[in-house]
Amino acid sequence: MSASTPGRGEGAPLVFITGASSGIGQALALRYAQAGWRLALVARRGALMRTWAMAQGWPASQWAVYEADVRHEAEIAAAAQACLTAQGLPEVVVANAGISVGVDLGLAEDLAVLRDLLDTNVIGLAATFQPFIEGMRARRRGTLVGMASVASVRGLPGHAGYCAAKGAVVQLCETLRGELRPFGVCVVTLAPGYIDTPLTRENDYPMPFLMPPAAFADRAFHAISAGARWRVIPWQMGVVATILRWLPRSWFDVLVGAQRHRKKRRRDPT
């Protein structure tokens, strides 16, 4: 783990975002910067992240970059501690880093792929939250944001690992919400639909209601600010998710059985 460590920039609130080097994470960083927040940006590609951040022309006191892979608990713990030391306790922590890759459970080698999906999307999320929970509880204020997916609603052929991981994110966040609410700490679960990111550009199937990252980030910013417990973005995918959730299993099986699903090639976390 390495970091750029500008001053604390006292006064403005601080947001800690993982997976900040591209896609949703980068768009959220831009949206929070636009609102005047200080930024703690976490990515595996630290040099690339720093180059991008410097190109934005932000004051040095507004941002810091921490290089870490959420799959490695020691790295994300060190990044969190560096943030606490250099910038203070965040108001908002966004566990955004994740991967999406198809899994064929008939292949022995895909058990390792499944493990990586769970390590990144679930354990990585928990490891991102953990260093900040006690401080937020003691302060009796703060927001933890888990990035789930519409794919968390039902199991989709070809995506056993991703659906399982994002379903676990939903349940983990729901559990934390009940535990932390008495201490004034909010837990927000965001469920993106199809967002135009490097992750989705590899999809070889229709993506209804595809949304630009900046539009997603704006809606997510307001949902987080409002302390929304659960928010599907865009709203049209929320309607789809509700239908899928309550669709009888026999109908759902017919619906997904008519689709063609091919294993997506591997994506590493941002």
Polypeptide structure, described:
The protein is of the alpha/beta class and 270 residues long. The protein has a single domain (14-257), classed as NAD(P)-binding Rossmann-like Domain (Rossmann fold), CATH 3.40.50.720. 45% of the residues lie in helices and 14% in strands. It contains eight helices and seven strands. The chain has helices at residues 23-34, 46-55, 73-86, 110-139, 160-180, 213-225, 235-246, 249-257; strands spanning 14-18, 38-43, 63-67, 92-95, 142-147, 185-192, 230-233. It has a seven-stranded parallel beta sheet with strand order 3-2-1-4-5-6-7, sandwiched between helices. Helix 5 links the parallel strand 5 and strand 6 (185-192). Helix 1 crosses helix 6 (213-225), helix 3 runs parallel beside helix 4 (110-139) and helix 4 runs parallel beside helix 5 (160-180). The two termini are 14 Å apart. The model is unreliable at 1-9 and 265-270 (pLDDT under 50).
Q: Can you give keywords for this protein?
A:
270 residues; alpha/beta; Rossmann fold; 7-stranded parallel beta sheet; 8 helices; 7 strands; 45% helix; disordered N terminus
Q: Could you give the topology of this structure?
A:
Blueprint: E1 14-18, H1 23-34, E2 38-43, H2 46-55, E3 63-67, H3 73-86, E4 92-95, H4 110-139, E5 142-147, H5 160-180, E6 185-192, H6 213-225, E7 230-233, H7 235-246, H8 249-257
Parallel strand pairs: 1-2, 1-4, 2-3, 4-5, 5-6, 6-7
Helix pairs in contact: 1-6, 3-4, 4-5
